Amino acid sequence: MEATHSSSENSDKFAGFWLRLAAHIIDHFVLGFVIGAIVSFTMLVMGISASFLEDMDNPATQMIVISFSTVVGVSALVVTWLYYAMMESSSYQGTLGKLALSMKVTDANGEKVSFAQATGRFFGKFLSSFILYIGYIMIAFTEKKQGLHDILAGTLVLRK
After folding, report:
1. Res 4 pLDDT > 60
2. Fewer Cβ neighbours under 10 Å: the N or C end of the chain?
3. Reported pTM
């Protein structure tokens, strides 16, 4: 594989908006299953059930629910971050959704990204979302099919 790519020669190698959206949907199903299992297990361990939640007027119940919600929210963020950053910086170079659709994440030279670079890409997605998803919409219009998070992290998503 060449170290650098000419965009005119390889424009068909960049993964476009719709393909990346489909991979994103697959990844959300995977993460939903994993996070759902974590939530269910945590509820079981903490003894939280529907009958327990009927007593929401009790301050102790409210504190348990707030604590549980905080733990689940932080856990979901950490699991999602590690899923994306570890998978994209691994030898697979992509999440399960990207692998299923024959894509990989690379640096600007087509090489594997570091964990730090994949982490920057992950957290850059928050910025892409906060500005009315314009950071994602950019994928459809940029020469190398990069979203704002890709530009910030110096990454490309290529078709295999």
Report:
1. no
2. N
3. 0.87
